[in-house]
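Structure first, sequence second, as always.
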């Protein structure tokens, strides 16, 4: 089996982004340890310039879960519940967190920061994380939403492993001047990898992931009145 890129012209995937800017993003605070029974999993979600949900979630081996809200969540006091923590731990065990870096921080202002700690491994990121981290946050978010502690539309959604976030497939409207259109995205380093259809109506583009979050860029492109369709590229396995 060998991987290859398979280009789809029509599917569109777009995650919800932050609301319009209101206040500045807060700094990531230190999260104190519980010396009696430290949590086995701890998730910190930081603020953004919009209304990103900000809270700390702690899971203990006995099944106890504590959510401490800060901003933009539907609860305003510490919440406690019981979850199937051992089942969640099994998924964390199989995630391979020990081989990941401790930080995936990008110089992007309007992106919330995250801290995820499992046992002795803690990872920080702010929008340029490996897919496995997003999938684990999405796992926790499903339980948090079910408790009513987080609104479903603000929860993390796990991306399929076959999505290639660094590449966008774009259909431009006929007669769009591609050179002028590209100039509009100079701030994110957008460039044409190749023309899917000669003439430039369908193009495969790349961009600088150090300056823009993939979902933020996809939303921006989809809102462009010169664009008909846009989606992340996909990678599939070809069977011999």
């Amino acid at each position: 089996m060998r991987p290859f890129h398979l280009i789809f012209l029509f599917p569109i995937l777009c995650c919800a982004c932050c609301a319009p800017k209101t206040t500045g993003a807060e700094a990531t605070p230190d999260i104190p340890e519980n010396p009696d029974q430290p949590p086995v999993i701890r998730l910190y979600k930081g603020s953004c310039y919009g209304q990103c949900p900000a809270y700390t979630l702690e899971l203990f081996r006995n099944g106890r879960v504590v959510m401490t809200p800060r901003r933009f969540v539907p609860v305003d006091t510490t919440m406690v519940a019981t979850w199937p923590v051992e089942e969640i731990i099994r998924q964390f065990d199989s995630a391979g967190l020990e081989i990941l870096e401790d930080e995936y921080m990008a110089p992007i202002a309007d992106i919330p920061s995250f801290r995820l700690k499992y046992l002795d491994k803690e990872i920080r990121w702010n929008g340029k994380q490996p897919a496995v981290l997003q999938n684990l946050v999405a796992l926790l978010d499903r339980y948090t939403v079910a408790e009513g502690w987080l609104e479903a539309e603000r929860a993390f959604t796990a991306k399929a492993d076959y999505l290639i976030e660094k590449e966008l497939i774009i259909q431009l409207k006929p007669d769009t001047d591609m050179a002028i259109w590209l100039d509009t995205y100079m701030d994110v380093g957008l460039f044409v990898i190749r023309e899917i259809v000669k003439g430039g109506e369908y193009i495969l583009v790349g961009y600088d992931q150090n300056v823009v979050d993939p979902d933020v860029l996809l939303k921006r492109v989809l809102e462009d009145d010169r664009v008909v369709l846009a989606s992340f590229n996909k990678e599939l396995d070809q069977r011999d």
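Margin note: The chain has two domains: 2-16+162-238, 41-154.
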